[in-house]
């Protein structure tokens, strides 16, 4: 049943296969016995193999075991989760933070929690796939605006003044092209029209801003973005994500 589709994908050069890495040594990896320079990873600060992170992870496993054994709401919340959330709150300068197991889980969790049927979401056309899925799950009326088009955003906000709740969601640093969202203009519009603003800082956390706190810090807008989503699996060298 699927062979035809798979061969079609193969013909279009769209069939993807895993590249198996045999060893990591900073930016050098070994694949099929060949030493290669790794240029496609998101480990922007090289933290994934940093000695103090390795040591902290090993110590945590020794003290707490390997798995949580249950979801957060049952008995899976340890003091480590709380400590990490507290530190993220301080790092991002927000009121609170909540961990997720991945960036995908964060975006498909946060967005439907904020917007639902009858609400409006404005989403940049180049937003990450996990934001697109989060918007679909929400059942809100999703308006995809042309990439970084703030005039389009304002026009849509004017037309939807009567919506119960409106959310603007954008990547901070766009995952495919590396360009940065026009946050000063978007913040201004969110404040002018009194709507909620969410920024996905997966590629901005640890990368931009004077102290690596992301897009809001980069533009001097700390405290003016309602929800900052970030991942721990890129510059922060681990895995998982958060809403702050
Ligand atoms: C902008 C953006 N948001 C969300 C994600 C999803 O993060 P994760 O890989 O942790 O699911 C990614 C990761 O590729 C991303 O680039």
Give structural attributes.
single chain; 244 residues; alpha/beta; 7-stranded mixed sheet; 8 helices; 10 strands; globular; binds pyridoxal-5'-phosphate
Ends: how far apart? 44 Å
Number of helices in the DSSP assignment: 8
Q: What share of residues is helical?
A: 25-40%
Low-confidence stretches: none
Q: pLDDT average, as an integer?
A: 96
Task: Please explain how this structure is put together.
By secondary structure, this protein is of the alpha/beta class. Helix content is about 35%, strand content about 20%. The strands form 2 sheets. It has a 7-stranded mixed β-sheet with strand order 4-10-9-8-7-5-6, with helices on both faces. Strands 1-2-3 form a 3-stranded antiparallel β-sheet, with no helix packed on it. α4 runs parallel beside α5. The longest helix is centred in the N-terminal third of the chain and has 14 residues. The chain is globular. The model has no long low-confidence stretch (mean pLDDT about 95). The structure holds pyridoxal-5'-phosphate. The site of pyridoxal-5'-phosphate has 14 residues, from α4.
